[in-house]
Design goal:
single chain; mainly alpha; 7 helices; 5% strand; binds heme C
Length: 130
Amino acid sequence: MKWINFIFLILLLTACGCQQNPYQQGERLYSLHCANCHMADGKGLMSLYPPLNTPEFQDYADQFSCIIRQGLSDTITVVQKEFIFPMPAIPELNNVEISNIYNYIRHTWQPHLAPKTAIQVQSELDNCTK
Ligand code: HEC
């Protein structure tokens, strides 16, 4: 094998290595934008921030994109606790990033839910109630 082919092969293998975890961008964005409130393990924080790692997450799955883009200022009950503080909107996240965060959460704590594509995110956003 010519050395140039060998280098090409190494580069190719390294590039494939990066793709092994499809949830990498979602994980990075989750740590950057969500973990400070919902915590890295998705447990939330006392009565301030609700958990994302419980079955009740499913009740918000259809509104997920709207919650991220517009925030949420309801009083909601998750695992028998009331959450009265609002969640601020995170408007800088685009549709692909929202779907990657959703798919990371789903893969990590909600494996029974179906993944979301960026196109599904757009159709959710088209139907936000606010
Ligand atoms: C500044 C703190 C804060 C940040 C940052 C934040 N949230 Fe929230 N989140 C909240 C609060 C507070 C609520 C409850 C809002 C309410 O009671 O109306 C909430 C509610 C939710 C809910 C619905 C309730 C549930 O338990 O499923 C989801 C889903 C959610 N957040 C996901 C996210 C995701 C994903 C991110 C990152 C992209 C994020 N949040 C960033 C504070 C935050």
